[in-house]
Amino acid sequence: MMMKEGIRILAIDDSTIFSFEENVLVVGVIGRRDMLEGIVSFKVIKDGDDATEKIKKAVKNSRFREQIRIIVLNGTVVAGMNVVDLIKLKKELNIPIMAITRKTPHPDMLKKCITSSEKHDYINKLKILDSNIKSAKINGIRNMYVQSVGINKKDIAKHFENSVRLLRIAHIIANGVARGESKGRF
């Protein structure tokens, strides 16, 4: 089933990670077409394992819950090595997920970073990462990469531009709040 034009999208990105802070700000913007309609924010543990649950809670508590048709993430990890379980999010929220990156996904490099982290249980993170890799489709679009669950190629293409725009806004807000001024691109 094709999605209609002008759907509400929740785009999520984390802020700059400061070495002295245990928690990292994550911002989600909700919008459609040329309209920004809402913002959600929460903190996750740097290199932790709470990102999936915190995203799920933010969506369930949002007044836009029933209207969000796609969740867009900047990659599959936030706050360092806090791996987001794309499959679990899709299953429990019944909302398609897209993880967009500028660079080609390199699961082996990510696995190496995860196993070198002494802070948290890396075995569960590796299971989630493997599940994401096996279950999510990766498509190249306009020099970016989309890892997706529950959404077809036509809908990815139809909503890609707006998803990237909203992801950029989430990035700007998160970094502007954390640093006092936004910097960089997602």
Write the layout of secondary structure elements.
Elements: E1 8-14, E2 23-32, E3 35-45, H1 51-61, E4 68-74, E5 77-78, E6 82-83, H2 86-93, E7 97-101, H3 107-116, H4 122-135, E8 137-141, E9 144-149, H5 153-179
Parallel strand pairs: 1-4, 4-7
Antiparallel strand pairs: 1-2, 2-3, 5-6, 7-9, 8-9
Give an account of the 3D structure.
With 186 residues, the protein is an alpha+beta fold. It has a single domain (8-179), classed as archaeoglobus fulgidus dsm 4304 fold, CATH 3.30.2170. It is built from five helices and nine strands. It has helices at 51-61, 86-93, 107-116, 122-135, 153-179, and strands at 8-14, 23-32, 35-45, 68-74, 77-78, 82-83, 97-101, 137-141, 144-149. A seven-stranded mixed sheet has the order 3-2-1-4-7-9-8. The protein has a two-stranded antiparallel sheet with strand order 5-6. A hairpin with a 2-residue loop joins strand 2 and strand 3. Helix 1 packs parallel to helix 2 (86-93). The two termini are 30 Å apart.
Descriptive key words:
globular; archaeoglobus fulgidus dsm 4304 fold; alpha+beta; seven-stranded mixed β-sheet; two-stranded antiparallel ribbon; 5 helices
Characterize this entry briefly.
With 186 residues, the chain is α+β, with helices and mostly antiparallel strands.
Shape: globular
Radius of gyration (CA) equals 15 Å
Mean of all residue-level pLDDT scores: 88
CATH hierarchy: architecture: 2-Layer Sandwich
